[in-house]
Structures are given as C-alpha cells and as structure tokens.
Amino acid sequence: KTAAILSARRHQKRSRIRQQNNPGPSKIPRTTSTMPAPINRVADGTPLALLGIAAATLVVSLVQIGARGTTLPFIWMPIVLFYGGLASLIGGIMQFINMDVWGATTFTSVAGYFFQIGYIFVPSSGVLAAYANSPEELDNALGFVFLSFTIVFSIVAIGSLRTTVVTTITLSTIAFMFILLTAGRLSHNTDVLKASGYVGLVLAAEIFYSALWLLAGREILGFELPHWPYALMGKRTGAAGADVEAAVVTVGKHEGATEDHFLTKEGA
C-alpha cells in the first residue's frame, strides 16, 4: 500500500514537471507586439478630384460659350491637363487604395477624358493639323469621342444611384453635356455646342457645391448643405438595404468624420 502511494506521488510530480516544461496553448503567456499596425489607407481623394474637375469644367465652358469674346481653346488646355486631369487621376488612385471602386472608376475616367481632349488640342500633338483640310471629318471624329464618353458617364450615373441624390444629378448633368457635345459635333451645329457650354457652367456649380459639402459642412458653415443620401431617404431594411448603406459609406468616404456625412448628418 505504501509503495502504491509513493508511486502515485511520483507520477503526479512527473506530470507537474512535464506541464511546467511544456505548457499548453492556453498557458503560454501572451505578449503584446511592439510593431505598429500596418496602415493601408490614404486620405479621401474625392475633394481634390472634385475641385480639379469643377475648375477645368468652368474654364472650358466659358470658352465654349464665347464669354467676353474668348473662343480659342488654348487657354483651357493647361488647366484641363495639369489640374483637372492630374487631380482626377490622383483622386482616382487614392480611391482605388481606399477600396472605393465607384469613386476610383469615376475619377480616373474623367482624368482619361481630360488628358485625351487636352492632347487633341495641343498644337504639337499634330492631331488638329492632320484634320486641317477636313474640318467636318474632325467634327465627326470628335463626335465619336464624345459619344464613347456619353456611354461611360451614363453608366457611372446609373452607378451613382447607390450614393446621394446630388451625386446622381451631377453625373446625369455630365452625361447630358456629352450628349449635346456629341450631337453638336456630328451635326456640325455650333448652337448645340454652345448649349453644351451653358450646361457645363451648371455642372461646374454642382461640382463646386459637392466639394464645399465635403470640405466644410455644418461645423464650418454653421448650417447643413443637403445632399440626400439614398440609404437614409429610402429607409431600406434587410440585406438589400444593408448593401446600399455599405456602398454609400465606401463611395468617397473613408476617414474619420467624413464617413458620417452619409450616415449621420442630420437634415441631409
């Protein structure tokens, strides 16, 4: 009996030693890593892109309507290339990093248009010189370019139905402006082209409004600029509503308080 007791004690002692030397997963002390968490996000590129688009659109539209006798396109090429196009491209890349597919697609598409139209009208590109003896053919070729972007921005406008009412109105205005540009070039009608310039002025005002809404807001202006998010207007519930609300958050809103513009702004 004594031998059995001693054997049992020795067995228990060996078990304790094994547990001390080989602790289980739950007994391994947890350590806190001193390495900083990786940062995969950048600032929201939407305001930068909007201001670039609005400024370039304003100048181009003023030339398009012949404001104060200005009709030559050479004055708007620098702002189209180096502010409108570059700001849109940078903003689009930033939105790609922020996982905002709609915003990235929209802004990089605008940048592609600005770079293309700016290159066409740069004299050293030789594009205008190639059509010097055939102005009607140049109009037709430009009409085809505008037609392709009419389709692009019509699709983008449909995609904006997951964001806000003001965004949809703005994208619809862009699509309508391109319809006029396409019709004016293909029909060789200067009045229609001039009308597209007036639509461009309205468009520039809409984009400036959205940029102000993003950068200022109630805390600076003292009042709320309405933008009417669809997710709040429809009071949608269920899986579909959750998808819409999640999409609204990701479109152009990624950092801190900017996300609250869509979901928590009172009176929007």
Show the helix and strand layout:
Elements: H1 2-21, H2 46-64, H3 77-97, H4 101-121, H5 127-130, H6 135-159, H7 165-187, H8 190-215, H9 218-221, H10 230-233, H11 238-250, H12 260-263
Q: Quick summary of this structure?
A:
The protein is built from twelve helices and no strands.
Question: What are its keywords?
Answer:
268 residues, mainly alpha, 12 helices, 69% helix, 0% strand, disordered C terminus
Shape: elongated
pLDDT < 50 stretches: 28-33, 236-268
The averaged pLDDT comes out at 80
Label the structural class. mainly alpha
Radius of gyration: 29 Å
Helix content: 55-70%
**Counting H and I runs of at least 4 residues, what is the number of helices?**
12
- The end-to-end span amounts to 85 Å
Q: Describe it for me?
A:
It is a single chain. By secondary structure, the chain is mainly alpha-helical. The protein has twelve helices and no strands. Helix 2 runs antiparallel to helix 8. It is elongated, with a radius of gyration of 29 Å. The C terminus is likely disordered.
